[in-house]
Amino acid sequence: MSEATLLLAEPQLVLALFGARDQHVRAIRTSLGVSITYRNGEVLIAGDAQAVARATTVFEELRYVVERGGTISSEQVRSELAKVNGGEEANRVVQEIVDVPDASRRVRPRTAGQSRYVAAIREHELVFAIGPAGTGKTYLAVAMAAEALKSRKMRKVVLVRPAVEAGESLGFLPGDLQAKLNPYLRPLLDALQEMMDYALIKNYMEQDVIEVVPLAYMRGRTLNEAFVILDEAQNTTVAQMKMFLTRMGEGSKIVVSGDITQIDLHRNTRSGLIDALTRLRAIPGIAMVELRESDIVRHRLVQEIVRAYDDEGATPHRDRKQHR
Q1: C-alpha span between 217 and 185 (Å, rounded)
Q2: At residue 3, what are phi and psi to the nearest 5 degrees?
Q3: pTM of the entire structure?
C-alpha cells in the first residue's frame, strides 16, 4: 500500500478537479483502482504504488489546466488516464508538443480533439477548424505558426480577421485606420504575445515577418512560404472566402477557424466558412477538424455557458405570462 498527498487549498480548484458529482474522481478511481479522499485542503491518494503514481500524475496535469483558467471535460480525464496507462491516443498528445519561441511556455493539446487539430495542421497545407468558443482554435493555430517561424519552415506569418462591422462603426472610432482596426485584430495579437517576447514581435512586425491584417487587405496578394491564419472565418462571405483561399502560394500553409454558431453577417448572407466546408470537402489534401464542447479549455464556466446556449430545449422565460 502506498499513499500520496496533494495540497488543494482553494475550494474552486477542488470543485473543478473533482467534477460535477465527483465524476472525474470516480473515473480516476475506477480506471486506476485507487482510493481518493479530500479533507482539510488535502487530497489523499492510496493504493498500489504504481497506481498512486499514475493517479498523482493525472491530478497534476488536470490541475495545470484549471490553474490556467481552463475547464476539465470527461474526455480530457479519459485522455489523461489513457496517457498514464500507455494508450495510443494519449501518446499522440504527448508527441504533439508545440515548440514556441518563448521556452518558458508549454503549449500542447489538452484534449484528444485538440490533438487531432494540431496533427492535421502538421500534416496538411489547408486546414479548416470549427468549434465553440474556448476550444483553442485560434490559440493552437497561432502556436503552430510561431513554431514554424522559429524552425524557419516558414519565412513569415500572416494573421487575418474579417472586420464585419467595418461599414457601420469603424468610422466613429477615434484614431487612424490602424487604431480603428485594432479591436478586431486584438485577439490574434493577444494569442501571439503569450508565445513570443513583445520586443521580438515588434521587431518581426516592423520587418513584415509577422502581419496582422484585416481580410480586405488580402486582395491581390500571393503568399509564398507563409503560415496564414484566418480567424472568425464564419463572418466571411462566399466571395471573401474564395478570395482568401486563392492567396495561397508555394510552400504556404493556411488554417481557417471559426464558430458557425456565432455568425454576425446580415441575415440573408451565406457564410463563406459554411460554404467552403461543403464545397471543398472532397478535395484531397484539405483537412477539416471539428472541435466540440468537450474540447473547451478556457475558464471552467465557458463549457457550461456554451452548453446552456446550445440547449434548444431551454426556455427560461416560459413562465413570463405568470409575472405580467
Answers
A1: 13
A2: -135, 150
A3: 0.66
